[in-house]
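Sample entry (675 residues):
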Amino acid sequence: MTTPSPAPSPTATPTPTPGPHGIEFIPITRGEPRPLPADIALYYRVGPCTSCGYGFGDLRRILFDEALGEYREDRPLVFFDVKGMVESAAISHSGQEMAAAVCSAGLCELGVGHPSADAVEHVWVSHNAGSTWSNAGEVLPGAWILEVTETDVLVQEWNLWGRRETLGSLTDSEWEEMWARLSHLVPGGREGWESRTRWIVSGEADVPPTAPSPPALGNVSWRPADRCSNGALPWTAEAQGDRLLALVDEEGAVRRVYGTSEPLWASAPGGTTIRETPSCAVREVLVQEIRSYDAGMQYTAGVALFDLESGSVHEVEGLSLPEGFDPEADGSQEEYYHFWTARPAPVIESTMRDPAIEFTPLTMGQPRALPVGFAFYFGVHSCEGVYDILRVVAGEDGSTPLVERPYAFFDEEPGYLQSFEWGPHGQRLAVLVCERGSCTSGHGPASDDAIRALWVSADGGLAWERWGEVPQGGWIARVSEEDVALEHFLASSEVERSVLGRVWWFRAGEAIGPPEGFDTDRFVGWRAVGGDGQDAVWSVRGEPGGFVTASGLRLASPPAMKDDAAERWWPVANSPHGALLWGMPWSDGADLFAITDGTGAVEGAYSWTGTGSPLNLTAFLGEELVVGALGPWDCGVPRTTSLVDLETLRVHPIVDIKRLVGTAILVDALALPPD
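Predicted structure, serialized as C-alpha cells:
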C-alpha cells in the first residue's frame, strides 16, 4: 500500500442524454485515481485460496487514516478466533452493527454428512463494529444471517429433520437426540415446513426480507445492488450495449440514471480485468471491486469509486491487495482477498480500555536464533485438524536445529492419529489412535467397527505401549508422569449420556470433576496455576473471565476492564515466578496482553500492532521471554514463530523455522529435562 494524494474537489452532475433504448442517462466518465475517503470502510473476506474451505473465513476491514496518510487494516471478527467457526455474517447499512453466526461445536454446515450430531450454532451481535460482542441466542445449525439492524438480526433456518435424506449419515437415534436438544428452537414442531425466517431479538417469525420493486424504466431487466446507508437503492441493467445504473430513493422514485458503453461492471470479452457490480458505501459514493488477472489466472484485488455526484469512476489510489500476503514479504504465505462490501466508516469508541491500564506497545525487532534448552512443538495440520507433530530443538553449537517426529512410530501402524499430548519435559508422550474404521470426530459419528486406543511413550517416542481402548469422542487433556487424563464430550452409540463431559485419569479410573460450590460452565483444559503447578480448570458460569480449578482454587481474575470486554481475556501461560499471562485479540488492529500476579494486580500490559498480522503467544521461556507466532490461524497458511522480549519490548522472528516446519503451527514449548 502506498500513500495516496489528497482527493480532488467534486464536480457538478452532468446533464442526462437519451440512449438508443429510450432511457435518459448521465454519461459515466473515467476520472483520475483517488484515495479512499476517510468515511468509507472496505470489507474483505480473506482465505488461503481463491474459492475453497468451509465457513465464512476471516474478515478484514480497510480504512484510510487521514492523520497518518496511510491505510490501516483490522479484523472485526477476531473475537471468534477462540469461540468457533464463523458460518455467516452481516453488517448494517450504517456500518455500526455487525452479526455473526458461529458454530461452537461439531460441524454446522448444511451438506452431505452435515450437520454433525453435536452441532451448536449461536448468533452474536456487535453494536460497535466488532469491538465487543454479545450472544443474541442459539439458532438451528446451518442458519444463515440475512440482515442486521440497529436493534435486531434476521436469520433464515432450515428444517433439518425434513432434510435428513439429503443431509447424510446420522442414525435415527442421533436425529432424535438432536431434536431433544434443539426442539426449544422450533416451538411449532418439525412437521410442515422447509425453511423459516425470524428476528432473533424481537422473536417475530416468518417475516422474509422485503423484496424491492425494480424501477419502471424501459424494457430491461434491472438487478438490485447494495442498499445505501440513507435508504437509496442502486439498480444495474444492460440494454443495447449500454451499462445502466439507476438510483432509486426509499419511496421507489428514480432520482438519477447513469450509463456507459464501457464494461464498468462486467468483464470485457477476452480481457483480464473484471469489474463487479458496485456496492453502496455512503450516500453519494459506490465502491466497485476490480480483479486483474495475470497469465496464470492469479489476481490482484483492488476497488474503484463511483462518484454519483459527478458521474465519474475513479480507481482507488495506493490500494492494491495481492493474492498473497506475508509479514516477511517472502511470498510464501497466500491470503486471497475477496471483496465483500463497503460501508460508512464505523465510530469505534476509544473508551473501551480501562484508563487504569496503560498498554506498552511492542515493536518489531531483529531476527534471533532458536533458543537453546527448549523443545518446540509444531502441529502439522490440514483444514480438518492436526495430524502430526514436529519437535524442534536448537543445536547447542549454533548448528541447524534438529527436527524430529516423535509420533513417527505410527507410520507403520494401521489407522490414523486423533489427539496428541506430552508431559512436562516432553519425555512422556500420549496419542489417541483410531485403529479401525472411522472414529468419532467433528465431522460425524463413528462407524460400527471403529476402535480407538490410547498409546503412551515414556522415552520421547522411541518406544510405545498400548494402554487400551477408549470411548469414541473426546481428547487427551493432560499427561502426567504416571497417568493420562482424558476428556469425553461427544455422544456416540456406545456411550451413555451420563458420561458426557467427564474428565478422568485413564489408568486410575478416577474422575476429575469441577469443584463443589461453583456453578461451572465448561472444562477448558489444564492451566498453570502457580510456578510449575498444573490443574484442571473450568469456566465459571455467569462470570466473564472467571476460572476455577478442580481443587477449588480461583485463578486470578482477568485485568480490570469494562464488563462487556471481560470475557475476551483468556489465560495463556504462567511465568516462572507464578504470574499469569492473559491475551485478548483486539479488533481495532491491536492484540493486547497483560500479566497479573496471584491477586489479579496487573504487573505489565502490552499491545501489538506491527506488520498488520496478529500475534498469538504460547509459552514463557523465562520471566521476560515469551514465544509465539505472527500471522492468522487460516488453514494452510504458514506463520512466523517469534520471541517476545518483554524487557526490551521487541518481537523477534526466529530465523529458519519456517523453512524447517512449513505451514506447521507452534502449539507448545517446553524446557528440556536436566542432563
